[in-house]
């Protein structure tokens, strides 16, 4: 089980990224727009840099919904390999059969 603080910090980052997504996308398009003047593009980059760091989606870490584990993460199932194996052994994941030899 991951530290509760790590899990909560990641939740905070997800919420902040969702809140600033529209503003961040708008500033990025302005910064890349070749039709604008150099000063306007620079101002857009400066405003982008003033946004909170945790509002960037790059800072979000994929974590298991069950245990909070950051590694061995399956995106499709939103859980780690260990949690998947435990649930599969209990028969809670449809279509998953635990193999052993």
What can you tell me about this protein's structure?
The protein has 101 residues and is mostly helical. The protein has 2 domains: 17-60, no CATH class; 62-101, 30s Ribosomal Protein S14, Chain N (Irregular). Helix content is 50%, strand content 4%. The protein contains 3 helices and 2 strands; from the N terminus they run H-H-E-E-H. The chain has helices at 4-32, 38-50, 81-89, and strands spanning 73-74, 79-80. Strands 1-2 form a two-stranded antiparallel ribbon. Strand 1 (73-74) and strand 2 (79-80) form a beta hairpin. Helix 1 (4-32) packs antiparallel against helix 2. The longest helix is centred in the N-terminal third of the chain and has 29 residues, at 4-32. The chain is elongated. 8% of the residues are buried. The model has no long low-confidence stretch (mean pLDDT 93).
Brief account:
The chain is mainly alpha-helical. The chain is built from three helices and two strands.
SSE blueprint:
Elements: H1 4-32, H2 38-50, E1 73-74, E2 79-80, H3 81-89
Antiparallel strand pairs: 1-2
What's the helical proportion of residues? 40-55%
The fraction of residues assigned to DSSP E strands is under 5%
Total tally of structural domains: 2
Number of strands: 2
- Biggest sheet strand order reads 1-2
Largest sheet: 2 strands, antiparallel
Low-pLDDT residue spans: none
Global structural class: mainly alpha
Backbone CA Rg: 20 Å
Specify the number of helices. Answer: 3
Compressed to H and E, one letter per element, the order equals HHEEH
Shape: elongated
Gap from first CA to last CA: 28 Å
Integer average pLDDT: 93
């Amino acid at each position: 089980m991951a530290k509760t603080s790590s899990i909560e910090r990641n939740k905070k980052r997800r919420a902040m990224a969702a809140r600033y997504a529209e503003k961040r996308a708008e500033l990025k398009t302005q910064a890349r727009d070749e039709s604008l003047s150099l000063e306007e593009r620079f101002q857009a980059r400066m405003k982008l840099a003033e946004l909170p760091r945790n509002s960037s989606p790059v800072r979000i870490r994929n974590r298991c919904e069950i245990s909070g584990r950051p590694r061995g993460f399956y995106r499709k199932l939103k859980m780690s390999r260990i949690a998947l194996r435990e649930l599969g052994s209990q028969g809670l994941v449809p279509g998953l059969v635990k193999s052993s030899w």
